[in-house]
Design a protein that fits this description.
- The structure holds 2 protein chains of 2 kinds.
- Chain A is of the alpha/beta class.
- Chain A has 2 domains: 53-166 and 333-393, D-Maltodextrin-Binding Protein, domain 2 (3-Layer(aba) Sandwich); 169-331 and 411-450, Periplasmic binding protein-like II (D-Maltodextrin-Binding Protein, domain 2), CATH 3.40.190.10.
- Chain A has helices at residues 2-29, 67-70, 72-82, 93-105, 121-126, 139-142, 147-151, 175-180, 196-210, 229-237, 258-272, 282-290, 303-306, 346-357, 360-369, 376-384, 390-401, 412-427, 432-447, and strands spanning 53-60, 84-91, 113-117, 154-155, 158-159, 162-163, 169-174, 219-223, 294-300, 313-316, 330-331, 335-339, 403-404.
- Chain A contains 19 helices and 13 strands.
- The radius of gyration of chain A is 25 Å and the shape is globular.
- Chain B is mainly alpha-helical.
- Chain B has 2 domains: 1-52, no CATH class; 68-294, MetI-like (MetI-like fold, Orthogonal Bundle).
- Helices cover 75% and strands 0% of the residues of chain B.
- Chain B is built from 14 helices and no strands.
- In chain B, helix 4 packs antiparallel against helix 11, helix 8 (164-189) runs antiparallel to helix 12 and helix 13 packs antiparallel against helix 14 (269-294).
- Classes of the chains: A alpha/beta, B mainly alpha.
- The A-B interface holds A 1, 5, 8-9, 11-12, 15-16, 19, 101, 123, 217, 277-280, 411, 413-414, 417, 421, 424-425, 428-430, 435, 438, 441-442, 445-446, 448-449, 452 and B 18, 22, 25, 28-29, 31-32, 35-36, 55-56, 63-64, 67, 70-73, 137-140, 156, 158-161, 245-250, 261, 265-268, 270-271.
Chain lengths: 452, 299
């Protein structure tokens, strides 16, 4: 009897202990994506000159081939130059948003700098997570970025984040497929672009020649980020449409307008004619181009490196709509850096942000990663460099001249979810006017909680 | 097995002795499980209910519900949830009952069939959805290739609002029926075969036996399957998130997906808490009705 009792007690104790251990394990797991130092580590505060200063940076991109490895020399150079040591924590793309949300919502001061995806600037700014940067950047310094890049870091006339680099779009085409179809692309440049209508016509011709019965599944012309506002809104912007109202809280009178209706109707026609695709999402559609199954694709500057087949590809400036030659629009935006509003080392943090976005750190980053610069000076450098690749030259031109910032709103999550779905619905045959009216209604309901 | 009276008395004495001497032992033994249930089941439910009635400054408010009830998307999502369940629950229960009847027959090698019928449940729902998504693809899916043989134009099973909800029902049922079948099979195995033999002697045919013996004797199984199936299907999420993301044109936007969007895409926790609480109330109400209708009346 005593034995059974002891055994029972032992079992109960063991179960309770295992539960405690599991509980402790849970808190460890929550920092799963991080690869660097523990949170409990002591941080030296920003103090008088001569004291060693350490700041903490939360970012995305764990791994030696990603930001973690690529930024190591930049952090070392920054420490050498300023004496400020940067402790970096790298999380996966989606984990970073959760970490920032969790830490910032509870007023956590254990980090100083955060990497901010451009679409979250207004949300973090309006929520008080980001420190205003206007006192750290002079007007002269702000003018060093192209306007679209700078504006995307501003919410309610306050600068909350600075751009690391930007992104832009080009028209990529499969030269091998065009050659096989016997099609020669007309000459084009920044002032004499192909039109969307011309590209659609050429794509149809190529399909008729290469895949007359449609059995090979050759796609004529499509968008790398299909059904995502990031890229699809370019069409409406190219017809003079805006992305969101001035205050960032409404799309009524913005998307249910002629430019949007015209853009969506044109795209729906492209799908109905079999030139553009159905059924592929953004992740799988670009693979069709990389595999040599698509003739034309609007894509980002990373497209060339994604090619998996032997086909030769070419690129040119993004098309415009006939009669709207002066309204060319390209989507843009990338990563930004901001200072935690609760940081105890705001000066050092702002110094680091400046180093990464305007200083030597930015030069190093552009060399290492080959992204499209946000800095006008660097964009000019590429345009004047005879050895720069054609796609980088086009990218620099588009970033400086045709880039349209994404919708700036604290409700970007709602905005992109609703309008991504609207683009997808129209692609699948939904009535354009009805879809846009529904989108307006849904967005109005979604932002109601922000207006409480 | 019933123990002889003296043994029963002795057993009772032993149990009573243990209880008196170790009054706290039973409580101690159930404590870990009780705590786990409190932490991982009851607390999140309680927290969700509370979150739904709190404003951003922590005071009591019904504004979150007011906003939700004023939102057309919520009502449309509620209607789609009900429609989805009105289709899937009877489909799954009838199909799994029929499957159980099939694999309950006594023929050589029936164990093999039972395994095959149960196999879909051994595949994760996520994996199953991805496979079905490929098979139902409008571009080069197996389903459309087969239809093509008969000259039928490709059908957008997951991108056409006429088909999307039915496709989700198909995906969820392909896997779900296998699971519910096992409960019916266990119930069928529990019915004494002599009852069927007597009925046969009295001249009862297959359908008479089915409706007069099998169905009534499985009342408890029906009750469990109805309640558990209703709960599982009201909370269905993975196939929708993977295959349709609530589309096309909101035709698969069930409440669970709407709650997910509120929590993870809109960062609107109060909205998510309200939706989850409403789901909880709906499920509880339906289960209560099912329980009342199907449970055995006390003599």
């Amino acid at each position: 009897m005593k034995k059974r009792r002891a055994l029972a007690l032992l079992t109960a104790t063991a179960m309770m202990m295992s539960m405690c251990v599991t509980g402790c394990g849970g808190s460890n797991a929550s920092s799963g994506g991080a690869t660097s130092k523990s949170e409990g580590e002591e941080k030296t505060s920003d103090s008088s000159a001569g004291d060693a200063v350490t700041i903490k940076w939360l970012s995305q991109g764990p791994g030696e081939d990603a930001w973690e490895g690529l930024t190591k020399p930049i952090l070392e150079a920054f420490e050498e130059e300023t004496g400020i040591h940067v402790e970096a924590e790298f999380y996966s793309f989606s984990d970073l948003f959760e970490v920032i949300e969790t830490k910032s919502a509870s007023g956590n001061a254990d980090f100083d700098v955060m990497s901010v995806d451009v679409t979250y600037v207004s949300k973090y700014g309006s929520s008080g997570y980001l420190e205003p940067l206007d006192s750290y950047f002079t007007d002269e310094e702000k003018a060093k970025w192209d306007d679209a890049s700078y504006q995307a870091g501003v919410w309610d006339d306050i600068m909350y984040a600075a751009p690391e680099n930007t992104s832009t779009q080009e028209l990529y085409y499969n030269k091998t497929l065009l050659d096989k179809a016997g099609i020669t692309l007309p000459e084009s440049d920044a002032d004499h672009r192909l039109t969307y209508e011309e590209v659609a016509k050429l794509a149809k011709q190529a399909q008729d020649a290469l895949d007359p019965d449609g059995s090979k599944g050759i796609i004529g012309f499509d968008f790398q980020q299909v059904s995502r506002v990031y890229q699809m809104n370019m069409l409406a912007n190219s017809l003079g449409g805006s992305n969101i109202s001035e205050d960032g809280y409404s799309i009524d009178g913005v998307v249910n307008t002629d430019p949007w209706k015209e853009a969506m109707t044109w795209y729906q026609g492209l799908v109905n004619d079999g030139v553009a695709s159905k059924g592929y999402d953004a992740d799988t559609l670009q693979e069709q181009f990389y595999a040599g199954n698509m003739v034309f694709m609007i894509g980002g500057t990373w497209t060339s490196s994604g090619m998996k087949c032997e086909d030769e590809i070419g690129c040119t400036y993004v098309p415009c709509f006939e009669g709207h030659e002066d309204q060319v629009a390209t989507s843009t935006g990338s990563w930004y850096f901001g200072v935690n509003s609760q940081s105890k080392s705001k000066d050092a943090a702002a110094q680091f942000v400046k180093y990464l976005t305007l200083g030597k750190g930015n030069d190093m980053w552009l060399d290492i990663n080959g992204d499209v610069p946000s800095r006008l000076e660097k964009q000019q450098e590429i345009s004047n460099d005879a050895n720069a690749t054609p796609d980088m030259k086009i990218a620099a031109h588009e970033a400086a001249n045709t880039a349209v910032p994404r919708a700036v709103t604290p409700a970007f999550g709602e905005y992109s979810t609703i309008l991504d779905q609207a683009w997808e619905d129209v692609r699948n045959g939904a009535d354009v006017g009805e879809t846009l009216d529904n989108a307006v209604e849904q967005f109005d309901s979604a932002v109601a909680s922000y207006k409480k | 097995m019933r123990l002889p009276p003296f043994e029963r008395k002795e057993r009772k004495n032993i149990m009573g002795e243990i209880y008196i001497k170790n009054k706290w032992l039973p409580y101690l033994l159930i404590l870990p499980t009780f705590l786990l249930i409190c932490i991982f089941k009851l607390y999140p439910i309680f927290n969700s209910v509370v979150q739904g009635v709190l404003s951003s400054d922590g005071t009591f408010t019904l504004d979150n519900y007011q906003l939700l009830f004023a939102d057309k998307t919520f009502w449309s999502s509620l209607w789609i949830t009900l429609k989805f369940n009105l289709i899937i629950i009877p489909c799954q229960i009838i199909l799994s009952f029929v499957m159980a009847l099939i694999v309950n027959v006594k023929v050589k090698g029936i164990e093999g069939f039972r395994t095959v019928f149960y196999l879909p449940f051994c595949i994760s729902l996520t994996v199953a959805t991805v496979i079905w998504q490929m098979m139902l693809s409008v571009n080069n899916g197996v389903a459309n290739s087969i239809l093509g043989i008969f000259g039928i134009a490709p059908v957008g099973f997951l991108i056409d609002k006429k088909w999307a909800l039915l496709s989700i029902v198909l995906i969820a049922s392909w896997r779900g029926c296998a699971y519910w079948m096992m409960f019916f099979l266990a119930g069928l195995k529990g019915i004494d075969t002599s009852v069927y033999e007597s009925a046969k002697i009295d001249g009862a045919g297959f359908f008479t036996s089915l409706f007069k013996i099998t169905v009534p004797l499985l009342k408890n199984t029906w009750l469990f399957v109805f309640v558990a199936n209703t709960t599982a299907n009201f909370l269905m999420f993975a196939p929708i998130q993977i295959a349709t993301e609530g589309g096309p044109q909101g035709s698969t936007n069930v409440l669970m997906y709407e709650a997910y969007k509120a929590a993870f895409k809109y960062s609107n926790r109060p909205r998510q808490a309200c939706i989850v609480t409403i789901l909880l109330v709906i499920i509880m109400l339906i289960c209560l009705i099912q329980n009342k209708t199907l449970s055995e009346k006390e003599a």
